């Protein structure tokens, strides 16, 4: 059985679609595989945001814990999606919990490593940031419409 | 698309124009009543010329004329005894053929739930006396909208089925008339049983009558009238020409559909909305407006239920209620809906304009809003903004 | 341009019965009422006269409670069955009378009215079908899904993408699971969830990229709040599906349901007779006009 390199594995993810293999390889240098059991946390609110997570299989729910109400679900991300962006900008702090709701496999990219590589190669950095911004735009638009509670009002 | 009222168009029909006198007209009314028709015609009531059941020519508005302008309607005494010396009646024939309230069905609760029955009483047979050409076209439009599509308004269809129509050519167009712009007058050219042109001069008070149907001809023959001479035919034609030249308003229908469809965001809509009271007068007096609502009423025990069809108007907030609000909440959107429907969407829906140029919406608008003026305003180049 | 308005010469009566006036309702008895969500019920109705109401998916009836009035309600049942199923949301007035009806009560029914999703037409069958529903919008689409399940061989891929407000407010949750086993690819997302929900949270448009739709052979049927349908249509257009193969189901105030009362007009269209199903190419411009 031929094992694929993490670079090949990463290159198949929609986030990296269209990025040249050399750039993927460069970014893969910051990457490692992680497996999270259902019910375990990927990160906790207030923790240091030191990784960019590319979700290969499974599903993660973003939650905030509220006394008296328990965990409130903000959003979810699954196969083919990514989490999240606080690692990009100071104070590099997670603003919510991330809990795997199914057995989940991710590729975790070390954010300090990512930031170093983007500084060193601004063109790579720009292409990477374009992709992150696209994800943020999609998320923000969808979240705004969810706020309208369209199904809730007759 | 526009037909000017062509003098002599009436003669495209069966020919045979004859002349009758005022007593002759009375004889026609008597014959129709004898045949079981309820004769409806114009009469003076409450300072206006409205429609009512008639049995004699004495009830017609002899010697009365009207002055109509935006937000203005006055009667005045003429210096002659013309029976039809006015423009458009306050109410159109819509109030007769498509009344404001109509019973659709009544139901009694039973073991099988209920049994719903249409009204058993057949409608009266109406003879409409004094239908102007614009109103004749309005009836034709309602015939199409209400009876020739997938579902028909059965009440209208029943009343229309046997309605006897006596049209009257218009010799006194009013300040708000624009039938020439809409190709609907001033001469009735089709769809009547008889068409009258009133002539009142040194040769006397008489009517040139053109039959438009077999039964019209048959009714006329009972009077043994004299054929119309060349002088009277010429006088009738001249009357039509003069009326066509004396329209109070003009509406340019060239490209009107594209004009309205393409200007949904024109600032003029806010301008008219600042004046419009959404009072619905225009839709009430318009002879082609057909929007209705359905009401169910029951007795206290809920055993006897009736469903009624009632006139409604696109100017109300309830008309477009959806979910918790109205699709058309602003007056601007409602005025735009009414005008766009009347002049543009109607063409796509029914293959004809919805407006017959009768001018009633202009006369009876308390804010003096004029559909011809609004249409012209949309054609003006838009005001240039100050910072360009 | 004007039509001929010449009255017809009166003829002798033919003795033929005229068709029943279109506004006459038929009595239908409630067989059962099931509450689906806090404000939605599904009624199963049967005709008192024994004549089943034959309909095409996408059509609606004017459903009423005697004395209260009538409202347009999409038919959500199996088009091949004898039972009339209608899912109703309680928004007050007439709908409240309908959702509080119990087995044995008799309701008024007129219809079916409107056009259909035409999922079985030549252009659609043989290709892929994607059904995108938001909230109660799943109800008018359920008939299509039941038809697709019954004739699965007529289509390539059949995908259902469903967005609900919350897990408790999903319509037909048991059937969603059944359909997944009957050859339908089912994706469900909710706007908000509690910790017990292990499924997707997000807007229904976010299900579209992962569906990997083939734009050359896919027809989309979309139903939900109008804002949602605009966003979904845009997202579908972005995948390359042409506007003519995106069909939406519109809703407007209706009093008669038969093109006469005028309430349901969207500029030149009568939603009740020209719709309620429209190609997105027909309506895209109109949907952009505020308060049209």
Provide a descriptive summary of the structure in words:
The complex is a heterotrimer of chains A (154), B (388) and C (292). By secondary structure, chain A is an alpha+beta fold. Chain A contains 4 helices and 8 strands, in the order H-H-E-E-E-E-E-E-E-E-H-H. Chain A has helices at 6-11, 21-28, 111-120, 122-147, and strands spanning 31-36, 41-43, 51-57, 59-66, 70-78, 82-83, 97-100, 104-110. In chain A, helix 3 (111-120) crosses helix 4 (122-147). By secondary structure, chain B is α+β, with helices and mostly antiparallel strands. Chain B is 31% helix and 24% strand. Chain B contains 13 helices and 16 strands. In chain B, helix 9 (268-275) packs across helix 11. The two termini of chain B are 39 Å apart. Chain C is of the alpha/beta class. Chain C folds into 2 domains: 26-113, Elongation Factor Tu (Ef-tu), domain 3, CATH 2.40.30.10; 128-249, 3-Layer(aba) Sandwich (Rossmann fold). In chain C, 18% of the residues lie in helices and 29% in strands. Chain C is built from 6 helices and 15 strands. Chains B and C meet through strand 6, strand 7, helix 3, helix 4 and strand 13 of B and strand 1 of C.
Outline of the structure:
The complex is a heterotrimer of chains A (154), B (388) and C (292). Chain B is an alpha+beta fold and 388 residues long.
């Amino acid at each position: 059985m031929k094992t694929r390199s993490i670079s090949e594995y990463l290159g198949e993810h929609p986030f990296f679609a269209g990025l040249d293999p050399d750039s993927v390889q460069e970014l893969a240098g910051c990457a490692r595989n992680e497996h999270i059991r259902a019910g375990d946390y990927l990160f906790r609110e207030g923790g240091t945001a030191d990784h960019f997570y590319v979700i290969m299989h499974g599903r993660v729910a973003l939650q905030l814990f509220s006394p008296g109400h328990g965990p409130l679900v903000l959003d979810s991300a699954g196969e083919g999606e990514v989490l999240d962006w606080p690692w990009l900008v100071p104070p590099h702090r997670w603003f919510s919990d991330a809990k795997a709701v199914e057995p989940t496999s991710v590729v975790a990219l070390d954010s300090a490593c990512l930031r170093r590589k983007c500084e060193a190669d601004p063109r790579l950095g720009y292409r990477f940031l374009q992709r992150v911004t696209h994800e943020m735009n999609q998320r923000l638009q969808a979240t705004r419409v969810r706020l309208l509670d369209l199904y809730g009002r007759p | 698309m526009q037909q000017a009222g062509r003098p002599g168009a009436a003669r495209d029909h069966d020919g045979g124009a004859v002349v009758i006198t005022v007593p002759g007209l009375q004889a026609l009314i008597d014959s129709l009543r004898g045949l079981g028709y309820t004769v409806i015609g114009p009469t003076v009531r409450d300072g206006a010329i409205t429609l009512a059941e008639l049995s004699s020519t004495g009830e017609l508005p002899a010697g009365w004329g009207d002055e109509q302008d935006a937000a203005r309607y006055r009667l005045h005494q003429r210096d002659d005894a013309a029976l039809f010396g006015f423009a458009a009646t306050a109410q159109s024939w819509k109030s007769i053929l498509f009344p404001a309230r109509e019973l659709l069905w009544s139901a009694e609760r039973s073991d099988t739930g209920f049994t719903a029955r249409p009204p058993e009483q057949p409608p009266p047979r109406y003879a409409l006396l004094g239908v102007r050409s614009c109103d004749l076209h309005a009836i034709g439009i309602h015939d199409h909208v209400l009876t020739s599509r997938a579902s028909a308004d059965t009440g209208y269809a029943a009343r229309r089925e046997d309605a006897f129509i006596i049209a009257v050519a218009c010799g006194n167009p009013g300040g708000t008339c624009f039938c020439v712009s809409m190709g609907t007058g001033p001469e009735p050219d089709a769809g009547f049983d008889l068409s009258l042109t009133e002539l009142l001069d040194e040769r006397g008070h008489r009517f040139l009558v053109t039959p438009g149907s077999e039964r019209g001809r048959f009714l006329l023959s009972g009077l043994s009238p004299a054929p119309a001479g060349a002088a009277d035919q010429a006088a009738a034609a001249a009357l039509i020409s003069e009326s066509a030249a004396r329209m109070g308003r003009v509406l340019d229908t060239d490209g009107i559909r594209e004009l309205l469809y393409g200007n949904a965001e024109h600032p003029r809509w806010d301008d008219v909305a600042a004046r419009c009271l959404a009072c619905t007068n225009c839709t009430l007096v318009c002879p082609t407006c057909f929007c209705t609502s359905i009401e169910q009423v029951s007795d206290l025990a809920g055993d006897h239920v009736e469903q009624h069809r009632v006139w409604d108007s696109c100017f109300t907030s309830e008309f477009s209620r959806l979910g918790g609000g109205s699709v058309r909440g602003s007056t601007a959107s409602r005025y735009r809906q009414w005008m766009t429907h009347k002049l543009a969407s109607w063409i796509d829906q029914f293959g004809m304009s919805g407006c017959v140029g009768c001018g009633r919406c202009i006369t009876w608008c308390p804010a003096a809003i004029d559909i011809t003026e609004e249409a012209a305003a949309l054609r003006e180049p838009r005001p240039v903004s100050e910072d360009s | 341009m004007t039509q001929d308005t010449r009255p017809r010469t009166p003829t002798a009566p033919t003795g033929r019965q005229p068709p029943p006036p279109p506004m006459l309702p038929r009595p239908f008895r409630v067989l059962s009422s099931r509450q689906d969500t806090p404000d939605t019920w599904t009624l199963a109705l049967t005709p008192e006269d024994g004549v089943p109401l034959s309909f095409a998916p996408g059509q609606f009836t004017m459903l009423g409670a005697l004395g209260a009035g009538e409202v347009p309600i999409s038919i959500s049942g199996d088009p091949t069955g004898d039972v009339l199923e209608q899912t109703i949301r309680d928004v007050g007035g007439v709908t409240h009378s309908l959702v509080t009806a119990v087995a044995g009560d008799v309701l008024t029914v007129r219809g079916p009215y409107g056009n259909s999703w035409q999922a079985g037409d030549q252009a659609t069958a043989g290709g892929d079908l994607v059904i995108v529903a938001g909230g109660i919008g799943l109800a008018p689409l359920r008939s299509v899904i039941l038809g697709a399940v019954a004739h699965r061989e007529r289509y390539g891929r059949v995908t259902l993408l469903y967005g609900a407000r919350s897990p408790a407010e999903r319509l037909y949750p048991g059937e969603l699971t059944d359909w997944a086993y009957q050859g339908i690819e089912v994706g469900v997302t909710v706007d908000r969830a509690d910790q017990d929900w292990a499924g997707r949270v997000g807007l229904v448009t976010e299900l579209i990229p992962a569906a990997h739709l083939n734009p050359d052979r896919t027809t989309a049927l979309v139903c939900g709040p109008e804002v949602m349908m605009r966003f979904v249509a845009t997202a579908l257009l972005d995948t390359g599906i042409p506007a003519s193969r995106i069909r939406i189901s519109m809703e407007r105030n209706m009093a008669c349901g038969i093109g006469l009362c005028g309430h349901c007009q969207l500029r030149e269209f009568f939603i009740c007779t020209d719709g309620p199903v429209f190609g997105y190419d027909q309506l895209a411009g109109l949907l952009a006009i505020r308060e049209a």
